[in-house]
Structures are given as structure tokens and as C-alpha cells.
């Protein structure tokens, strides 16, 4: 089924990245960085289904040329810590055809970004079977200019509103809505939701949909990027070690509650003499395995929990069936007792019969007993229907967890098994290794 994934990141020169290199890699092309003279040739790369540049009305003609566009960005941004481009990674619905996926990306990118004055360079990637890719892994990379572009080129000032958290939330919501419209037009019933699992679960509870709430009650998985997958395929031993980071980039870890001194402020001498504060993060004390290993553990936990919850609901359903059967039996017994009541005696001699008042009292008593039993049976049947609905959802989710667990074991996990590479090996933090072994663009 379709799943929602959309992540935003900024391509920064301070991280040693080049917008020209990024564009070449994502488009599967060959581009030359005029600023450095480096040539980036990814023309033999497989899996690039389509690459295209969208420009706003009135943009110069050179903005349609990928090499000219990103070299213009590199030349315009002078600072050593310049933000060169905004990149969006988006999962595409595998249920759609290639033409429908292309129309979907054009619609969303054109309306949400190009219409605001950005240049958008996007590439659609498809799974490569020989690389072991998931056959449903269709996705798009969108590189956006950080400045508006006009007839004379890029604006001198950046549009800061594009960096607001509220804007990112709005873009995510719009992406979910755009996908759902495309899925509906194509005749698919599946839908995506940009909200977190917890937010979706709470919304389901508020509207009284207990079955949907039960299906959403699971731990969210983490994203495993290409470098993390490559590390697992190559059986690369990921090393976790202390790292220095800025004071404003502190990870918040649960291990802090254990009283472990994970961090420490140190002074680092700058290249020009003055020192500046850095924070030392002791990752070996908080890491819990590689990203693939940790994700597999999350899936295993979800699978075990779904089994336990399904078994609980099965026992609950069995008890409700017994309650219903017992109540129906009691109702039948009350009916039989009413039929067996002796008719009321008439006249002065009533030694073997009941008076009319006694007969009516007995009859009312059995009627009330029958009605109570029927109400218990109806309540048990209603609860049973609700429990069976929840159980059906849990069994479906349990099957999905089993499939997901098997796929992770076959595709990504090292020969050592689920937790073969555990504590002492980095979980990634956005990269597959702490030493920069897999430096991407």
C-alpha cells in the first residue's frame, strides 16, 4: 500500500557539498562545476526514470539548463557557509503508472514551489532490481532554489518565510492531498496521511473508530537512506565514536535520564586563533546499532506486539461468543418456563393451580428474565462485532509486519541476524558512518 514519506534538507557549502554535484547525481547526468573545475559524471547510473527543470514565468532561458542553473547558484552564493539549495525527498505511490507519477510530481512542484518563484529541478527514481531495491520504491528528488528568480536572475534577498516550520507543515499536508487526489482519479482506494501515527490514532479515537486506532497503535519506523543501505550491503562495520558538534545541535536522548554524562562542553581553537565552544557527544554510550538493524528491531517489536494484541482480541471474541450463547440459552429457558406455567384455577378450589394474580406475576417474571437475557445477547453481539472488526485490522497489520520483517531480513540485515551489529556501532544520525566513509552528494 502507498505510504507517506517526505523529508526536507538544505544543501550547504559548509558541509562540503556542491549543488552541481547533487544535481548531476540525482539527474543521472554529467555536469562540470565551474567554481572548482570538478566534473561529476553519473550518466551510467541506473534507476533515473525522468529528470526535468520547472521555472516560473519570466525566468531567464539559462535556468532551463541544469549545468548553467546550478553554476549560477554556486557563483551567486559567495559565503563559505552558503545555503545552496533546498532538497525534498518524496515517496511516490507505486500503485500509479509512470505517467501518473510524473503528472503527480509536476502538479505538486509547480503549484507549491514554482508558482512561488522558485526554480525546481526534479528527478524521478525507480527501483533497480539488481541492486536489491524494493520493487515499490519509486521516489522523487526535488532541488529548489533558495531565492526567487526573475528576468534578471536571482533576487538579492532570500525569502525567509520558506524556512518557517509552519510552511513545511503546509507543504507536507499539500503533498498528502495531492497524492490522494491522484490515487482517487486512478481508481485506487488507498490513501496517505502526512500526520504522525500518534496524531492519526488520536483522531481515530476521537471519532470512535477503535479498529483504525488499534491499527495505528505501533512504533514508527525510521528512514533508511541509500548510504545506510549501501553500508549493510557491503557489510561495512559501522563505528560509533565521540563527535564534536555545535552547542545548538545537541541530540536529546533517553539515556540522559539514566544519569550518564553523555555530553561535555569543550573549547576548540579556531583557524584564526580565537576559540569557540563545542559540545562533545559520547555516541558509543547512546547508540543502539545501525539504522537498518534498529529499524528491524522496531519492526520485530511491532510484530510481537501485534501478535499479542491479536491473541488478546481473539480471547475476548471467544468470551463474547460464549456470553452470547449463554444468554440466548437463558432466553430460551425463560420461554420454556412460561409455556410450562399451569393455567390459573377458577372457582373456589385452587389446590393444584395458581390464582390469576399469581399466574400473571410468574409470567411477568419469566418475561423479564427472557428480555434481560436477550439484551445481554444483543450487547454481546454488538461488542463481538466491534472486537471482530478490531481483530481483522490487527490480523491485517500483523501480516504486514511479518512481510516487512522478512523483507528487512532478506535485503538489509547482515549475516549476524537481527541484532548482529548492536551497541558500539552508530545508528546513523543521517549518515551511515561517523567517519564519513560514505560521503554522498
TrEMBL record:
It comes from the Bacteria. Signal peptide: none annotated. Residues 234-258 have a biased composition (Basic and acidic residues). The keyword Metal-binding does not apply. Residues 429-441 have a biased composition (Gly residues). Residues 17-203 form the MobA/MobL protein domain. The keyword Glycosyltransferase does not apply. Gene3D superfamilies: 3.30.930.30. Keywords: Conjugation. Residues 231-258, 422-441 are annotated as: Disordered. Belongs to the MobA/MobL family. This is MobA/MobL family protein.
Amino acid at each position: 500500500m502507498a505510504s507517506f514519506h517526505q523529508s526536507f534538507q538544505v544543501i550547504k557549502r559548509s558541509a562540503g557539498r556542491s549543488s552541481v554535484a547533487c544535481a548531476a547525481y540525482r539527474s543521472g547526468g554529467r555536469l562540470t562545476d565551474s567554481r572548482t573545475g570538478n566534473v561529476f559524471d553519473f550518466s551510467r547510473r541506473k534507476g533515473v526514470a525522468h529528470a526535468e527543470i520547472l521555472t516560473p514565468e519570466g525566468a531567464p532561458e539559462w535556468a532551463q539548463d541544469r549545468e548553467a542553473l546550478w553554476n549560477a547558484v554556486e557563483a551567486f552564493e559567495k559565503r563559505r557557509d552558503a545555503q545552496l539549495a533546498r532538497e525534498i525527498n518524496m515517496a511516490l505511490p507505486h500503485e500509479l503508472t509512470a505517467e501518473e507519477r510524473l503528472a503527480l510530481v509536476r502538479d505538486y512542484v509547480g503549484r507549491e514551489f514554482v508558482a512561488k518563484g522558485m526554480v525546481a529541478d526534479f528527478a524521478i527514481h525507480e527501483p533497480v532490481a539488481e541492486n536489491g531495491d524494493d520493487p515499490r520504491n519509486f521516489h522523487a528528488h526535488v532541488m529548489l532554489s533558495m531565492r526567487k528568480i526573475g528576468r534578471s536572475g536571482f533576487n538579492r534577498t532570500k525569502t525567509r518565510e520558506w524556512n518557517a516550520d509552519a510552511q513545511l507543515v503546509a507543504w507536507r499536508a499539500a503533498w498528502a492531498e495531492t497524492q490522494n487526489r491522484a490515487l482517487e482519479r486512478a481508481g485506487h482506494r488507498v490513501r496517505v496521511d502526512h500526520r504522525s501515527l500518534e496524531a492519526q490514532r488520536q483522531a481515530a479515537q476521537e471519532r470512535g473508530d477503535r479498529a483504525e486506532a488499534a491499527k495505528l497503535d505501533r512504533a514508527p519506523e525510521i528512514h533508511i537512506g541509500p548510504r545506510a543501505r549501501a553500508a549493510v550491503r557491503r557489510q561495512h562495520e559501522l563505528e560509533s565514536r565521540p563527535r564534536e558538534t555545535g552547542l545548538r545541535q545537541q541530540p536529546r536522548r533517553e539515556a540522559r535520564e539514566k544519569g550518564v554524562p553523555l555530553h561535555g562542553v569543550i573549547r576548540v581553537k579556531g583557524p584564526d586563533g580565537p576559540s569557540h565552544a563545542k559540545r562533545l557527544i559520547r555516541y558509543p554510550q547512546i547508540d543502539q546499532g545501525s539504522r537498518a538493524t534498529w529499524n528491524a528491531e522496531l519492526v520485530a517489536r511491532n510484530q510481537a506486539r501485534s501478535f499479542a494484541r491479536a491473541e488478546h482480541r481473539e480471547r475476548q471474541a471467544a468470551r463474547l461468543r460464549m456470553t452470547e450463547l449463554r444468554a440466548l440459552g437463558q432466553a430460551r429457558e425463560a420461554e420454556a418456563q412460561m409455556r410450562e406455567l399451569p393455567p390459573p384455577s377458577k372457582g373456589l378450589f385452587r389446590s393444584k393451580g395458581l390464582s390469576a394474580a399469581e399466574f400473571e406475576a410468574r409470567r411477568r417474571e419469566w418475561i423479564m428474565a427472557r428480555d434481560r437475557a436477550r439484551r445481554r445477547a444483543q450487547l454481546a453481539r454488538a461488542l463481538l462485532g466491534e472486537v471482530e472488526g478490531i481483530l481483522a485490522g490487527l490480523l491485517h497489520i500483523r501480516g504486514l509486519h511479518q512481510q516487512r520483517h522478512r523483507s528487512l531480513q532478506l535485503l538489509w540485515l547482515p549475516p549476524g541476524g537481527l541484532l548482529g551489529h548492536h551497541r558500539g556501532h552508530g545508528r546513523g544520525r543521517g549518515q551511515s558512518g561517523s567517519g564519513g566513509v560514505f560521503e554522498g552528494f
